[in-house]
Structure formats: structure tokens, C-alpha cells
Write a structure and sequence with these properties.
Length: about 270
């Protein structure tokens, strides 16, 4: 007798393996890339305009707006069997509306880099790509272990990671991004669960900050922004670096490259 598998997403909803072929719409850029890397290219029928990877393949998939403002009517026309959303990317109202006409809505909410293993297995299980998921798990674990091994010899440093300007905004320790940085012994300063992306209102809190990182997303910082920040906060930080936001804040298959990127970056910052 063939065993029956079920898979539980990050809001506790149970999903059975999909009947072939599924029709998948992804509302999460990092998960769109993961679906391609799981070998699901022929089953992806819709994605957001911010789904940029893999660049040589994603352009052929229909766009249905942005994660915060999906075109519900356009999505309906695609007749998806599955829509994938994320707690931190998509509104509860949009997800609820989509669930009224899409049979299967899968919601992800990775809170730390280690949660990628569950994400790979969740989507690999639902879409009958379990072997591909395990290959990704193996690659992730190798990159994760390599980073931790190097981090043992790195000094602990306080880091300010900027994600927005006008106003300047950073991340709290309750975010995936902050927990990613912590693997390299980089500690972010804000620790308030009620404010995942706090505004910088008190420079005194940041007086001992050693490194200031300017991310390429969601705000596309450049070198002019570094000069603006230093002029406004002349006593904060001693090193100022532009970093690839996709590598550090995207979960999914990009997180594997992200771990290697963080390892290289952290070594360079010692």
C-alpha cells in the first residue's frame, strides 16, 4: 500500500501532494526562484513583477502585479491550482480573497535561515519534487556548516543594516535577515518584537555601532546614500558597505548562495 504523505505550511494548513500537473502562481520573488530550482518550470503560470530570478527563464511567466498589490482578476484568469504566499510579503486580505477561488493556498513564513530546510521539503513534497528538495537541503547544510565553521574565529560585531531611506529604517532581531547576520556573529541593535522594521530615531542607541550595511533592496542604496547617512549621523559606524540584499534577505534556494556570500563578506570585514 502506497503511504499517504501530507505537508504542513507555516500557518498550520495541511496540504496533500499535488495531482500532476499543478498550475502554480507565486506571490513571493524568492520562492519563484526556488520553484524553478526544484524543476517546476513547466508548472509555474504566474508570478509578481519583482520575481527576477532565474533571469533567463522568469520573463516567460505571466506577471500579476506586485506582492503587495496582486491583480486578483488577472490571477483568477490563470486558473491556478496552487498559489504560494508569504506572511511578510502578502496581505492577509489578499490571501483570504485568493483562497475563495484557488483550491490550494500555501503560506510560508521562514523566521530563520534554518527554516529553509522545511521550506524546500514543503514545496518539494507538495509538488512531487522530493529528490530535488533533498539536493537543495544538502547544499544548504554544507554552506551553513561552512559559515559556522568560519564564524568561530570571527569577532562579534554590532551591525546596523539599513533597508530604507526617508526615513532611515533598519531591522529588528526578530527578522529572518537579522538571524541570517547573526550566523556571522553580527548583532543588530533593535530588539522589539512590535517593530520588525524600526525607524532610526535615537542616534544614541547606535553609538557603539561598528559596521553600517546599505542594502540593494528593498531600497536601492548607492554610494551617495552612504555620504548622506554619514553627514546626518557622523558618530555612527566606522565601516560603511553596500551589500547585495537578495543574498542576505531572500530565503529559498538563493539562501544557499547567500550563506557563502555572508561568509566572504564577514571575513572581509574583520
Amino acid at each position: 500500500m502506497t503511504p499517504t504523505y501530507t505537508f504542513v505550511d507555516d500557518i498550520g494548513k495541511t496540504h496533500a501532494p499535488a495531482s500532476e500537473p499543478a498550475r502554480i502562481v507565486s506571490l513571493v520573488p524568492s520562492i519563484t526562484e526556488l520553484l524553478f530550482d526544484l524543476g517546476l518550470e513547466s508548472q509555474i503560470v504566474g508570478r509578481t513583477r519583482y520575481c527576477a530570478h532565474p533571469r533567463d527563464k522568469v520573463s516567460s511567466v505571466v506577471q500579476i502585479g506586485g506582492p503587495k498589490s496582486p491583480a486578483i482578476a488577472k490571477l483568477r484568469v490563470l486558473s491556478p491550482t496552487h498559489v504560494i504566499a508569504a506572511v511578510d510579503e502578502n496581505s492577509r486580505a489578499d490571501v483570504g480573497q485568493i483562497a475563495t477561488f484557488v483550491p490550494h493556498v500555501i503560506v510560508a513564513d521562514p523566521g530563520a535561515p534554518e527554516d529553509n530546510l522545511k521550506l524546500y521539503r514543503l514545496l518539494g513534497g507538495i509538488f512531487n519534487k522530493r529528490r530535488a528538495a533533498e539536493r537543495l537541503c544538502h547544499a544548504f547544510q554544507q554552506a551553513y556548516n561552512s559559515l559556522l565553521e568560519v564564524a568561530e574565529s570571527l569577532p562579534a560585531q554590532r551591525v546596523l543594516y539599513l533597508v530604507w531611506k526617508h526615513p532611515w529604517m533598519t531591522v529588528s532581531r526578530q527578522t529572518y535577515l537579522s538571524r541570517m547576520l547573526s550566523l556571522a556573529r553580527w548583532e543588530t541593535v533593535y530588539d522589539n518584537p512590535a517593530q520588525r522594521y524600526p525607524k532610526i530615531t535615537s542616534p544614541k542607541q547606535l553609538a557603539q555601532m561598528e559596521i553600517v550595511l546599505f542594502s540593494t533592496e528593498p531600497y536601492p542604496f548607492n554610494h551617495r546614500d552612504i555620504h548622506s547617512f554619514r553627514a546626518e549621523f557622523p558618530r555612527i559606524g566606522r565601516r560603511f558597505v553596500l551589500v547585495d540584499g537578495e543574498m542576505l534577505c531572500w530565503y529559498g534556494s538563493r539562501a544557499i548562495k547567500g550563506l557563502d556570500y555572508l561568509r566572504t563578506l564577514a571575513v572581509a570585514m574583520t
